[in-house]
Request: fold
Amino acid sequence: MTSPSHQSLGLGPVAILCVLQDLQLLTALLLPPPSRPNFLIIMADDLGFGDLGCYGNTTLRTPNIDRLAEDGVRLTQHLAAASMCTPSRAAFLTGRYPVRSGMASTWGPRVLQWAAGAAGLPPEEVTFARVLQERGYTTGLVGKWHLGLSCSSRSDLCHHPLRHGFAHFLGLPLGMMGDCARAEPSEKRTRLEQGLRWVGRGLAAMAAIMASITLAGRSWALWAVLALGATSATLEVGSRVVGGAVARLDCFLMRGANVTQQPLSLSRLTPLLLREAEDFLQRHAHAPFLLFVSLPHVHTPLVTSPAFQGRSAHRRYGDNVEEMDWVVGRLLSALDRGGVADRTLVYFTSDNGGWLEARAGGEQLGGWNGGFRGGKGAGGWEGGVRVPGIFRFPGILPRGRVLAEPTSLMDIFPTVVRLGGGALPEDRVIDGRDLLPLLRGETPRSAHNFLFHYCGDVLHAARWAHRERGKLWKVHFVTPVEDPPGSGSCAGSPESQDAMVCACAGGGVTAHDPPLLFELTSDPGEARPLTLHKEPAFNTILQALRQGIARHLETLGPRPREVGGALDLWRPWLQPCCGNACACDLEGGAREGRNDGDEDLEPWGRGFL
Ligand SMILES: *[C@@H]1O[C@H](CO)[C@@H](O)[C@H](O)[C@H]1NC(C)=O
Reply:
């Protein structure tokens, strides 16, 4: 709420405006939320905090998202529960820190690697979609999932969106898009290729040794030479075809339980997803619905339709952001056309911060985190977890409000569940808190005293919003080794082709004792660690943080392991396939670039460009 400065009698024009604004707020607050409203939830992939006009970007054009923020509430301290996709999304859908569901791992990859792995969001986890589906909502997911498919047989689909409360699904089960396009930076292809090549070379060297033994007259060694040579040659060939294989095995579309396009046609993806979302909104306008649009934007390889190519001031990344904004505009128009905008809560966010290490040929392919240190994957640094968060609900939420209180993406779970008339599960810890009272101005404070910042399943940092003094303390026990130092990124070589992110443990991190303490309100860039000398209350603050952490750790039960372990290895018997050779296209036309999907490309951006 605005300050009560208009109590003076000599009301100037500004004061009158303030009164009017307050009245507007008050009338807005008088309306109770309707029962069973609709939900349109839009999540971008790897979008940086500083990439949107309404978050201070002056060179990227995002008019639709900016308008959404003007018409609703914009959060400036909105935090993902993890700085990478799989754990952040698991936490988002369940309202729980990803360590609780096994979706956070420290060793090995921190996101699911294979569509045909056995790891994924455990079937016992409850998503907000499932609660609402049980309450009679029509639920849909359009876009990226990346939370697993099957457990032990190809058809059990135990981790599939259908099993997690989404009655409709069209999208990408995995979503390691760089490898789908065989483009740089690669998510796992480069690593696989190198691995196969090194093993192959090792075997070739052994074959050479065996060959010399053969020459020395031992006949059994001849067989070893042949076996080693053949395996080594196979691996060498394998390392060359692995890219194509990965693009086919991991990059496909599913509609419901069926594979309908394999391999994925990247150029047709956005029009297809958009049309699906618009159809959903049109078909279900009469019913209470929940639609989760999980965009492929703005993850590499930044596939952008021709209408938006070369239009922005920030090369391929900027073009992709501007296209994303246009997609959001189309979704909002669909709500207007269906006459349901007033009954629909719209939420926009990103799963984690921009990817600083994503560069190719000197071009920055990742987002801008608005001056916060670090980015996607970078420990507990702010840039990886602080993301845009916008809510719009006409008449129910105030317009044009900006909130700086700490909030979490995990808060969406209780907020959506309560508004949709569901009950929170009582048999487990829910870390999210209902946001509605804060968004409506019924309470000035976030319900979170502490928030915890994990890197994989290691607690790197924690924050404490100190009520009395309006200070925001953040402590780091462990930070990634930055390269160059202080950059917040772990780039290694700038031309590194692997999908590089910072490490969570081992040699790639520094442990701090005493820990690094920052006051974020005065030092948002986490550049000036405090000491006992500079902050006399240093020890008291640290003690409060440690107590908050101890209470949190007590609530953690046994930690299951889904991501980053043996469950997440490729299992041929779990490989989803369509057609005879894992090849089909049932999504409207088989030929690339000549299908009805492309009709949508023409009018794109008219009136905007
Ligand atoms: C806007 O976003 C681009 C692309 O991420 C970034 O390079 C630029 O620094 C941002 N500008 C501002 C003013 O934040």
Remarks:
- Residues 135 and 422 are 7 Å apart (CA to CA).
- Residues 220-250 form the longest helix (31 residues).
